[in-house]
Amino acid sequence: MTALDDGIELARLVPSGELDELVDSIARALGGALAIFDRAGDRLAGSEAAGPPRRALEYHGAPLAQLAATGPAADTSLALCAELLDLVIHHAHARELAAATHEEAMRVTFAELTEHNARLSRAVARLEELDRVKSNFLATMSHELRTPLTSVIGYAEMMFEGLAGPISSDQKDYLTTILGKADQLLGLITAVLDVSSLESGQLALDRAVLSLGELVASELATFAPQAGRRGIAIQLQACDDTAVVGDRRKIRQVVSSLVSNAVKFTPDRGQVGIAVRRGPLAGPDDGDAEPSAIHLVVTDSGIGISRELVPKIFEPFFQADSSSTRAFGGTGLGLTLAKAYVEAHGGRIWVDTAPGQGSTFTATFPAVPPDLAAADRDPQGDGA
Ligand code: ADP
């Protein structure tokens, strides 16, 4: 119920100080005594000397107040007071109406907002549930696909090695293709599984001291045939001590994603350069200048990436230009995993690029102090 529903109440609408002032000023000007009563006959302002109420005052047809006056100009006082009171009430009522309308509008807006919020909360809960179901589905499917695929690869390898009897060179070629494609499929399934474990926050690192330079050199051998066929020169420059503490499989995947993208998005007869060197751990915009990290820098002379797409390329399943990447293959998961893996090691990853100008991806990993690196080196330092 609002103030509007109560009817017009003089004492509520006009502060008693204002009524006192009104009565005093008329009495001073015209002499005699003057008083204002509410509609029930209780005196609100003026003195007893004004006597009992003599004149009733209405506002929009409803009783509002009563007035009393004595003295030589009593009638004039009553008329003047009635007129001024009518004016004052009119203004006060208009103010009250405006305030009540505003309050009602706020109440409606608040109710609408509350309802809107409730709908949003329900939508968010539903999306979270769907996201969880999707992650579970990805994890289960990837796992179920990997098991039979591992058998396919195992049996194909056994046939390739002649364990099931001699094979012709044609059969060898076919088996090589089967093994290559099965490996590609296994990589894809593993990436999906890794992304789903990232989403459920289960990224665990299996740490050992390893040489990043040696790991990169061994990984490059995988890309040499593909790059060679397309006339792309891959150059590696690694400084002496590139020891880091990290998860070999995950760092290998970072290297593989960056190098395979560099080769994939570089036209035939282009250049890919890889540097492994010391530098600060922080990113290019941070102040840290201590060379406390090992940088993996992969530069290509390829198609580059436009500035507005740079933040997106690290999002899952994002491909800057789906038509060209379809031609090149890929899932849009490589950089998502690379970023998660680098950051899990305490490093940073970023790219300097422009369309048509090539790209330089840099990933940093915290370096191991030289004495610890020498004492604790992983025996499989070449990553073989
Ligand atoms: P994928 O390579 O499997 O498509 P990534 O997550 O590795 O997925 O990369 C996401 C997208 O970023 C690529 O599809 C491509 O559009 C862009 N990109 C990544 N590396 C490069 C590069 N070296 N040059 C140009 N574009 C790149």
Describe this structure in words.
Helix content is 51%, strand content 18%. The protein has 384 residues and is an alpha+beta fold. The longest helix is centred in the N-terminal third of the chain and has 87 residues, at 74-160. The strands form three sheets. A five-stranded mixed β-sheet has the order 6-8-9-11-10. Strands 2-1-4-3 form a four-stranded antiparallel β-sheet. It has a two-stranded antiparallel sheet with strand order 5-7. The chain has helices spanning 10-13, 16-30, 74-160, 169-199, 212-229, 248-264, 322-328, 334-344, 370-375; strands at residues 33-38, 43-46, 55-59, 62-70, 207-211, 233-238, 243-247, 271-279, 293-300, 349-353, 359-366. The structure holds adenosine-5'-diphosphate (ADP). Adenosine-5'-diphosphate is lined by residues 257, 261-262, 265, 300, 302-305, 313, 318-321, 325, 330-336, 359.
Question: What key attributes describe this structure?
Answer:
9 helices, alpha+beta, binds adenosine-5'-diphosphate, rod-shaped, disordered C terminus, five-stranded mixed beta sheet, disordered N terminus, single chain, four-stranded antiparallel beta sheet, 384 residues
